[in-house]
Amino acid sequence: MSDLCIGLMSGTSCDGIDAAAVDFAQHPPTLVDTHYEPYPTALKVAVQAVSDGSDDRLDDVMALSVSLSKAYANCANRLIAKLGGVIPRAIGSHGQTVRHRPEAGFTVQLGSGAIIAQMTDIPTVTDFRSMDIALGGQGAPLVPAFHNAVFRSTAEDRVIVNIGGIANLTLLKSGLDTIGFDTGPGNTLLDHWFRAHHDGAFDENGLWSSQGVVIESLLASMLDDPYFSKAAPKSTGLEYFNLKWLSGNLSGAEKPADVQATLRALTARSIAKAIDQTGADVAAVFICGGGARNSALIQEIQAVIPTVEISTTAALGIDPQWVEASAFAWLAHQRLAQQPGNLSSVTGASRLAILGSLYLP
Ligand SMILES: Nc1ncnc2c1ncn2[C@@H]1O[C@H](COP(=O)(O)OP(=O)(O)O)[C@@H](O)[C@H]1O
Ligand SMILES: [Mg+2]
């Protein structure tokens, strides 16, 4: 008997939808099948237009939410078609974050569970973050709870680093509550700076960044941002780390490739700094998320923390590309079981809580 849930993840990189079908009948859960659906350009442009914190019209935002919901449902249906007749118990859909302001009491993920449930005929869970925020938490990151459930080991202390648009880390240390927080920009500044100077979505393998030289003064001024030294719990988003934030640090005289090299260094150094902030003497770091495929970035992280062994979550049994989508399958599974999805040691919420709104078809 399988116990299958689907997770749909569309992160701040705004690249598309990762869908993972995960079987929870075994421990650790197994990734049964996956599907990736890039966002059509029009959807990407529309999401980016409302993600940067500028003013938006509610009609446009809700129309975008409906379009996204249909894209999520179509993506789920394509994955379901690969499952050979096995019907998933639920879909967990993260949605598309277009605003994240926990300090103001809200976070907004577009995408309607009602539409997805209707189009797939599968119970659908959405809105995973707001209960945690209502309990005084950051509502983010949520993946550390999943990392804790599947990657914790009594034999070894581990750090899991998820490099999406924003990067987050999880410390899994024996005898210690799980620690996790957003470290700052992962790929987002690299992506946006690349797109400002090239056609194409991102700096493949960090090749362009490798043609530049790190500008130490720029790196220092960016790392001076109070976010990097702030104590956890903390989370952030594109309304903060965006090209406007970058411009505030630039003189305008820099060579574009040098800026790209410096942004790569910023991601690497801020991750290293965050590992240091946990105070743990970590021996093993496992990377996941799209940033795991940026070989220049991974090499730089390794260079910054040479004594730590760096690999990807593939070494722990889950392909780095599918960890976050698997986490939302797990969160849907937790919701069905009426089990908590958050960790108050991570988000700062006053207690553990069942997360997500469940829509029945
Ligand atoms: N081959 C690659 N070289 C460099 N960067 C890559 C590569 N593959 C993926 N990426 C980066 O990963 C991002 C997508 O990561 P993803 O984990 O989907 O983030 P999110 O969860 O924010 O959507 C891309 O925007 C890009 O920055
Ligand atoms: Mg993505």
Can you offer a commentary on this structure?
Helix content is 38%, strand content 20%. Helix 5 packs across helix 13 (323-336), helix 8 (216-223) crosses helix 11 (256-277) and helix 11 crosses helix 12 (295-304). It contains 14 helices and 13 strands. With 361 residues, the chain is α/β, with parallel strands linked by helices. The two termini are 23 Å apart. The protein has two domains: 4-139 and 320-359, Nucleotidyltransferase, domain 5; 143-316, ATPase, nucleotide binding domain (Nucleotidyltransferase, domain 5). A six-stranded mixed sheet has the order 3-2-1-4-7-13. A five-stranded mixed sheet has the order 10-9-8-11-12, with helices on both faces. It has a two-stranded antiparallel ribbon with strand order 5-6. It has helices at residues 41-51, 58-81, 113-120, 130-134, 143-151, 188-197, 207-210, 216-223, 226-229, 243-247, 256-277, 295-304, 323-336, 344-347; strands at 4-9, 16-23, 30-38, 90-93, 96-101, 106-110, 124-126, 158-163, 166-172, 179-185, 284-288, 309-312, 357-359. Bound molecules: adenosine-5'-diphosphate and magnesium ion. Adenosine-5'-diphosphate binds at residues 11-13, 15, 164-165, 187, 190-191, 202-206, 289-291, 293-294, 324.
